[in-house]
Amino acid sequence: MCLLTDESKRHIKKKWNRVTSSIWTKLFSAIFTIQFGLVVFFQSRVLVRNYSIYNDDRFKEAYKCDKDEDNSVEYLFAFSAIQSLVFMVLQLYLVYFGLNAIFHEHIIQIITLVALNFGSAAYSLVQLLQIKIRVDRIQNNDNCNAGLTGFDIDWLRVDLPQVLTLTTISVISAIIASKLYRQFGWSVYKRIGGDLRIQRIYRSNLIFIMLLKLNLFFWIIYIIPTVIVALKITDFSGGKVVDVVLIAYHGFATLLALILQILAYSSIKRESTAGMIAFSVLWTLIVADYGLLIYAFVRLLILGSYFMIIFSK
């Protein structure tokens, strides 16, 4: 008994034909799948290396000495693990994002994907610098580096290959994207014609749907700071009613963001003006929540760790 209907078979065949329509579509589809596998491999090595560093008694003592405090350094590995996990999930999402762009011959999405790929390469460099600067700072502190003689983070073998690989793949994907731009541009022109107004409407439609896809991914990542804020702000004594309000509003806005994305996608498919107006108005509540989230993270002094930015040396 066949579980697929004739319509489903035609739909799958259409997508397969899009993927295999040219050497460039095949290469573009394959390159991000390969990249995902490579990043999982590289990040696994980074995690193992970071675990060995942050759980090394010599580093723990030197870190406490350098910071002049007795706080545990265990949170460093926790944030490192979160960053690596998010990075791997991003690469998996890029596989979907790339295939989806091929299925729909969405050249703007392909250009965005290439930009995200260069961003991935840049982050891999940030990841390298993050650990290297932290360890180098402690090793250069004569008051705290006594136990770190010969301490090596092995960045040339662990981190640098990832940076070089992702940079190379980013350049290759940009070259392939330029070929797809010509291929898809002609295909779309044949489908919608040369009317500039129709082209603008079509382009705006595709951009908006693409942004919804991106926003859904970042909504998933958005859950992480939501949990962190909820766990960190636990002391409501001393009249800190504002903390309760902020957490409640943030939880509401997080759920609302998902509902609004579903509403927007449904509205644009049904060409519902009322739905899009409702989305535009209610989305201001989400924008307000972004501001409150930034305030909360700055206040908790953990913004840099989550967003993978080096604020201290």
Model description:
The chain is mostly helical and 313 residues long. It has helices at 6-19, 23-54, 57-67, 74-103, 107-139, 155-158, 160-192, 196-232, 241-270, 273-300, 303-306. Helix 2 runs antiparallel to helix 4, helix 2 runs antiparallel to helix 7 and helix 8 (196-232) packs parallel to helix 10 (273-300). It has two domains: 19-192, no CATH class; 216-313. The protein is globular, with a radius of gyration of 24 Å. The chain is built from eleven helices and no strands.
Based on CA inertia axes, which overall geometry fits? globular
Describe the main β-sheet briefly: none
What is the terminal separation in angstroms?
Answer: 63 Å
**What is Rg?**
24 Å
Beta-strand percent range: under 5%
Q: What's the structural domain tally?
A: 2
Fraction in helix: over 70%
| Average predicted local confidence, pLDDT | 80
Fold topology:
Elements: H1 6-19, H2 23-54, H3 57-67, H4 74-103, H5 107-139, H6 155-158, H7 160-192, H8 196-232, H9 241-270, H10 273-300, H11 303-306
Helix pairs in contact: 2-4, 2-7, 4-5, 5-7, 8-9, 8-10, 9-10
Q: Characteristics of this structure?
A:
mainly alpha, membrane, transmembrane, 313 residues, transmembrane helix, globular, UPF0658_Golgi
